[in-house]
Amino acid sequence: MTFRKLFCLLVILLPACRSKNVRPVTIVNAKLPYIDSILRYDTGVDVKIEDWKKDSLEGGMFITDINKIRVAIVAFENSTWYCYVKTNGAWMLSDSFKNNQYPFEFCLTDLNGDGYDDIRLSCPVMRGNNVCTVLLYQPQYHIFRHNSYYDQMNIGYDSATHLVRASALGGLFDNRKELYKVTGDSLTFYKGIEMIINTSGSVGELIYYEGKAGNKTEVKTIKERGNKTTGDFNKECWDDDLNYFSNGRCL
């Protein structure tokens, strides 16, 4: 094979080679958002900065070690959130995405049952509920990616049943408990229940759901007296209220 033919063959094959097994991260330079602040605050220990005001925005910064990787999150309300990972001594952009929530709490917990910690940022709302934003760990690339399937109220993983829990509890009109199966990087609805109580609290309605063909489908509705409605609701899907949500390590 002549040198010219070999060169042409390489030109054809190299793009295909580059398209496989490429780590989807961008090397950070000083011009990327907030990298100067990360370099200033990162001293090798856990960092949690709350009520951080910068560039007319309000939010927080979190820096810690997860799955033996140094990770930094910069999150401002109603703005773009940034996740960085430290590789070979250099900070690299892992993911960025728009989010309207306020990053109040940063927790490390396995949310999909793969044995690795994921990132759950949560913002408390009424009656002890938490609006969550989740970044799942990608072990093949050693990075974290935002996953909107997991952006659900009070989300947590039950290792005994291998199901993901989500719920909204304690309100007069919105009481629901839902279970999901982990299917790759997404979630598939398994079953759930919703409780509706009238304004006087005397009569309630329970709506049961099941996952059919991947869709949340109503299967039956029961009307009961208020106290019985609450009791049956509490026993369905799980019966430990929000205890599951405390799993993991929080900054």
Describe the structure.
The chain is mainly β and 251 residues long. The chain has two domains: 24-151, Lipocalin (Beta Barrel); 157-246, no CATH class. The chain has three helices and 17 strands. The protein has helices at 3-18, 35-41, 226-235, and strands spanning 26-27, 47-54, 57-66, 69-76, 79-87, 90-99, 105-109, 118-124, 130-138, 143-146, 156-158, 163-168, 175-183, 186-197, 203-212, 215-225, 249-250. The strands form three sheets. The chain has a six-stranded antiparallel β-sheet with strand order 1-6-5-4-3-2, covered by helices on one side. 29% of the residues are buried. Mean pLDDT is 83; it is low at 1-22.
Quick summary of this structure?
This protein has 251 residues and is mainly beta. Helices cover 13% and strands 50% of the residues.
Radius of gyration: 23 Å
Note the overall shape. elongated
Widest β-sheet, arrangement of strands: 1-6-5-4-3-2
Helix content: 10-25%
- N-to-C SSE series? HEHEEEEEEEEEEEEEEEHE
Main sheet summary: 6 strands, antiparallel
pLDDT averaged residue by residue: 83
Instruction: Tell me the fraction of residues in β-strands, as a range.
Output: over 45%
Label the CATH architecture of the largest domain.
Beta Barrel
Q: How many distinct domains?
A: 2
